[in-house]
């Protein structure tokens, strides 16, 4: 009797509560309380977590896609009449600067309005996920804005006014160029040099040269090289094997981001996706990984947290789902490990890009 | 008192946020929050350069220290109004102590240090932040920037040793050790390399289950020939009896692989395959499939390959 009971308990602990997660993302897309104020300038990334999360759950039908698409376009920094702000174009994270709502150009001249590379990246991915054809994106302006952010050492800043520069923004830039099918927005060779320079003595990647290797930056490095189509050109077989070893050693139950640090749900994606890109994710322990991710599931409000018995948040909710998708959890859509969108959204992108190429051929 | 009710601000028209008819991920701000930011947006639009603007940025930061536009505008004002940068250092010190994991505050501090061209407070300040969280990535990043930019290498190895005494498993400190040595003496001299190898082995004797120490050891040897460092393999095999760990065994596999690349011997291969088996079945079972994969890979690269199309007899005549 006792054995039966504890088996039932075990099953309850580890079952996946799909409907709770759907509702968690729905609530995220609506209104958040003031204690989330620090997310204001990155609201578009929060939208991406929720929208892509719903896509992974195959639940996009619960939201109003068209209204969301309009909101995203209202965040586009478009060229002004005289095109003097091209190097500042892209997408904003939110309306925090106070530009009046508008989904079309020309852009409004404002001394402090500019795009942010992570918002341009998540704006484009969110549009794709919602089924948009990107026809209202000023691609040339986005690429001009992107180009202005790359530094001599190959890394990128986030905004033209200046910010910290590191490998995260190389990843954002690579995603933007990949989606727009146009690499004129970055100097690939310099970016590769920066990425190589970020490889640590222990064969993981840090945020920049000399810095401690870390699961998130390792994902940015490898995923960027994959998107550029330069993985095997940039790294030797010996180096790739050493990177595989560094990554696979991150599994403790779930995964951690650095040696001797605690595990955290989000690394099930950052490290898991990297291992998948390197063809060795199949050699990880799926059961222990799954058990850890589900131990961080919030059974009441939905979503996932970094640790068990902690508050869930949109980032961990989304990446927890992606982590489960990588191990083939039933009823979850497959995720493209480099671009971090569902394979379904990726196919939509491929079809779009084919249309662009066809049109370019016939337009003379 | 709200800004909208202050007469000294009556000349400004507050600018609300405008998300249009269907806002997404909307944050529900209190009246006080909206009031401060509506006036921030108004100042921004005019690009006003004034003391009242400067004062307001501090309030805006207190409500949301992650708003990079507020920090940028504050820097513009610091320069335009020629504000006291020493006072700004005190200000940013307080903010970082409260919010040490925020990107914007560290970037701001870096800008002020650059303007002052004075890093003299940095190492002590960062040490204080690290005393509260010894693995804070921002703190280590800022520390490396300061040291490299202003050539403050002299006491850093001592700092590293002190922190390793406090926690020999702190991976950030091992990374810093590599950072300091590679930028000062380097690892080329046999004396330094041997010193570092012995240092690692000593730390491993004290705390065997420490991936950081093993990663460092492998890291400094992997491009210099792991199997060629005199006496190392013997020391590791000795440690295997009393201080075994998955990291020690993985290091052994890597030593054998290095040896095989220079001199493919059946005995060496067998030892490597045995250790992989031991890791897969007993000592690192979570990575069982990986160790078996590595075993197959070594077998394929270095094992005898019987090719039925070759007439082996013909080779000898």
TrEMBL record, chain A:
Domain Prenyltransferase alpha-alpha toroid: 16-341
Entry's Gene Ontology cellular component terms: CAAX-protein geranylgeranyltransferase complex
EC category name: transferase
Record keywords, A-Z: Magnesium, Metal-binding, Prenyltransferase, Repeat, Transferase, Zinc
Reactions performed catalytically: geranylgeranyl diphosphate + L-cysteinyl-[protein] = S-geranylgeranyl-L-cysteinyl-[protein] + diphosphate
InterPro entries xrefs: GGTase_I_beta, PGGT1B-like, Prenyltrans, Terpenoid_cyclase/PrenylTrfase
GO molecular function: CAAX-protein geranylgeranyltransferase activity; metal ion binding
Pfam families, per database record: Prenyltrans
Cofactor(s) needed for function: Mg(2+); Zn(2+)
Enzyme Commission number(s): 2.5.1.59
PANTHER family listed in its UniProt record: GERANYLGERANYL TRANSFERASE TYPE BETA SUBUNIT, GERANYLGERANYL TRANSFERASE TYPE-1 SUBUNIT BETA
UniProt record similarity statement: Belongs to the protein prenyltransferase subunit beta family.
Subunit structure: Heterodimer of FNTA and PGGT1B. PGGT1B mediates interaction with substrate peptides.
Record's protein name: Geranylgeranyl transferase type-1 subunit beta
Source organism of this protein record: Myripristis murdjan (pinecone soldierfish)
TrEMBL record, chain B:
EC code(s) of this entry: 2.5.1.58, 2.5.1.59
Domain of life: Eukaryota
One GO molecular-function entry: protein farnesyltransferase activity
Keyword Protein biosynthesis belongs to the record: no
Gene Ontology CC annotations of this record: CAAX-protein geranylgeranyltransferase complex; protein farnesyltransferase complex
Statement: the UniProt record of this protein carries the keyword Transferase: yes
Catalytically driven reaction(s): geranylgeranyl diphosphate + L-cysteinyl-[protein] = S-geranylgeranyl-L-cysteinyl-[protein] + diphosphate; L-cysteinyl-[protein] + (2E,6E)-farnesyl diphosphate = S-(2E,6E)-farnesyl-L-cysteinyl-[protein] + diphosphate
Keywords: Acetylation, Magnesium, Prenyltransferase, Repeat, Transferase
Cofactor(s) of this protein: Mg(2+)
InterPro entries with a match to the protein in the record: Prenyl_trans_a (IPR002088)
Enzyme type, top EC level: transferase
Role played: Essential subunit of both the farnesyltransferase and the geranylgeranyltransferase complex. Contributes to the transfer of a farnesyl or geranylgeranyl moiety from farnesyl or geranylgeranyl diphosphate to a cysteine at the fourth position from the C-terminus of several proteins having the C-terminal sequence Cys-aliphatic-aliphatic-X. May positively regulate neuromuscular junction development downstream of MUSK via its function in RAC1 prenylation and activation.
SUBUNIT field: Heterodimer of FNTA and FNTB (farnesyltransferase). Heterodimer of FNTA and PGGT1B (geranylgeranyltransferase).
Family to which this protein belongs: Belongs to the protein prenyltransferase subunit alpha family.
Record's protein name: Protein farnesyltransferase/geranylgeranyltransferase type-1 subunit alpha
Species this protein is from: Myripristis murdjan
Gene designation: FNTA
